[in-house]
Amino acid sequence: MTVRRGLKLATGGLVLVFLFTMVLISAMPTFAAQKPTIGVSIRSLSEERWARERILMDEKAKELGVDIIFTDANNDEFVQNSQIENLIARGVDVLIIIARNSDVAANGVDMATKEGISCIAYDVAIYHPDAIYVSFDSVRVGYEMAKAVVEQVPKGRYFWIGGSPTDDNAYLVRKGHFQVLQPLIDSGDIELLGEQWCDAWSPEEALKHVENALTAHANQIDAVVCSNDGTAGGAVQALKEQGLAGKVPTCGQDADLVACQRIAEGTQAVSIFKDVRILADAAMEAAMELAQGKRPAGINGKYINEQKGIEQEAVFVEVIPVTKDNLYEVIVKGGFHKLEDVYRNIPKEEWPKE
Q: Strand 320-322 relative to strand 270-273: parallel, antiparallel, unpaired?
């Protein structure tokens, strides 16, 4: 009896040890999933919005309790893929990529997915079916830009400035622009004088293109449709040199501080406010869910590129056109920029009353 009882106790003890060990082992993946590492490959921190979003993502990472690693490709698509390869080697769980080149970045996504790493294409589409697209509706962004300009100049001589020809967003924005412009071009209300693209969304290239257009057409241009706030800044500078800033409307997107200042001054008709605070949060939350093996709850649509044969799940965030009429309400009261920064270039007595 004593021997049997001893055997039972020993066996029971081994069972308890085994069960305790299994509990510890089963808990380990859960613990690891609570502290993932997110890699963020940024095409260039020299652009105001990406620098701002780096800060936003870093703050969100602290809130979520995750590690985050940033890289800056300085607008070089091949450097970006090299940095993505390095992030993969460092063992990141999820990659967020702000692509310099939608085609080239697909190679980076391919490298990651082969290692079982989920990828988010952040506000710039990447031509790879496994990337999840987290962005704004860029076609609508372009539509709202052109609509605001046409409301000011329903008939006249227009010049068009595009973004980077290697960025799919630039083509989506153009599509939205021409949903507004093409019917008016066809009817003869708008004469399109020319179209020019700007590599890397360069304000300097936009400046040169508009300078050349003004020279070629003896300053007889009634509106310049631009594709973001940077290119709008270049256009406004060229117009200012000819005394036309504020007389010839232009447009942009991102609600950069300098663009908001131009709207307050009256030299830019509209910027599309894409609340990057919401976008950065959405991307980080999706990355956290992907790291935990979950399908992101924020998925609410699909990104489809028929030309490339790409269809991706997408998280789309709403946008707001910002003009002089709602600049204070949306941008200042919304906490995106400060009153004294937005209105610094106009007399203080003309500032909105808080």
A: antiparallel
How much is the pTM? Answer: 0.75
Q: Are the CB atoms for 343 and 264 separated by under 8 Å?
A: yes
Closest listed residue to residue 292, CA positions, set 91, 96, 36:
36
What is the rounded CA–CA span in Å between residue 318 and residue 208?
Answer: 33
Question: Could you report the per-residue pLDDT of 169-209, keeping only the tens digit for each?
Answer: 899 999 999 999 999 999 999 999 999 999 999 999 999 99
Whether 274 contacts 254, CB under 8 Å: yes
Residue from 345, 314, 311, 309 nearest 327 by CA: 345
Q: Model confidence over 56-71: pLDDT tens digits? A: 999 999 999 999 999 9
- For residue 127, give both structure tokens: 């031509």
As a whole-number percent, the residues of the chain with pLDDT over 70 amount to 90
Looking up tokens 């009261």 gives: 333
Is the distance from CB of 137 to CB of 319 less than 8 angstroms? yes
Contact 92, 101 (CB under 8 A): no
What per-residue string of b and e applies to 255-286 under the rule 16 or more CB within 10 Å gives b?
A: bbbbbbbbbbeebbbbbbbbbbbebbbbbbbb
Ordered by where they begin, the domains of the chain are 34-136+276-318 (3.40.50.2300), 138-274+321-350 (3.40.50.2300)
Average pLDDT, integer, range 83-92: 97
